[in-house]
Amino acid sequence: MQATLPLVAEDDLLTTGEAARLAGVHRSTVDRWIRLGLLPIASRLPSGHARVRRQDVLELIKRERDAED
């Protein structure tokens, strides 16, 4: 049987804590972004912990900064 490749490289997936550090915000802010649909969940572990895409975080940061200008 042939293994399937993941759609996103594991290096591109971040925990909510890593996403918060990248964005310079508290982890609860990242949780709120997810809850509001501003930051999509790329995958969820069996434990329930979410993973988000690095690129999605970077795009959200850019949108937030552009909105401030």
Automatic annotation (TrEMBL):
Coiled coil: none annotated. Gene3D superfamilies: 1.10.1660.10. Residues 13-64 form the Helix-turn-helix domain. InterPro entries: DNA-bd_dom_put_sf, HTH_17, SinI_DNA-bd. One of its GO terms (molecular function) is DNA binding. It comes from the Bacteria. NCBIfam families: excise. This is Helix-turn-helix domain-containing protein. It comes from Candidatus Nephthysia bennettiae. The lineage of its organism: Bacteria, Bacillati, Candidatus Dormiibacterota, Candidatus Dormibacteria, Candidatus Dormibacterales.
